[in-house]
Amino acid sequence: MPLYEYRCLNCKKCSTILVLSLTNQVPAACSYCASARVERILSRFASPKSEEARLEALADPSNLAGLDENDPQSMARFMTTMGNEMGEDLGDDLSEAMESDETGSVEPDSTDSL
Predict the structure, then answer these.
(1) Phi/psi at 70 (nearest 5 deg)?
(2) What is the per-residue pLDDT across 42-61, written as a single tens digit (0 to 9) for each?
(3) What Rg do the C-alpha atoms of the chain give, in angstroms?
């Protein structure tokens, strides 16, 4: 079951559409504005790695070059790299957490004292 990506010609946003049957396709429509004026675009593809290969890549000493555990930005970059290798999208939450930790405005979690 392939996934196709389309760009809406009205709102310019991209939508991913699952095609359940190639012979009985439902016309594509924008997921945001429901417009039928969409164009198919090239999609990214994933090359799956085994968990062992991902862990080996993380253990490579060259990944630690330039890492300063006292620098929140350096740690954020390293954590983003680790998340990407493990297939996790850390999003903006990590950056926000690192920035707030740097300013000292993070309040301790109520579970920290447990």
Answers:
(1) -90, -5
(2) 877 666 777 787 777 777 77
(3) 21
Task: Measure the CA angle with vertex 87, ends 85 and 90; round to 5°.
Answer: 95
What is the per-residue pLDDT across 14-53, written as a single tens digit (0 to 9) for each? 998 888 877 877 888 999 999 999 999 987 766 677 778 7
CA distance 12 to 46: 24
Task: Average the pLDDT over 88-113 and give the result.
Answer: 57
d(CA 14, CA 22): 21
Name the residue with tokens 């970059």: 77
- Look at residues 43, 54, 52, 41 and name the one whose alpha carbon lies nearest to residue 9: 41
> Which residue has tokens 């309040």?
107
**How is residue 96 written in tokens?**
């926000």
Give the residue extent of every domain in the chain: 3-41, 51-103
Tell me how far apart the alpha carbons of residues 82 and 19 are, in angstroms, rounded to a whole number. Answer: 32
Max alpha carbon distance in the chain (Å)? 59
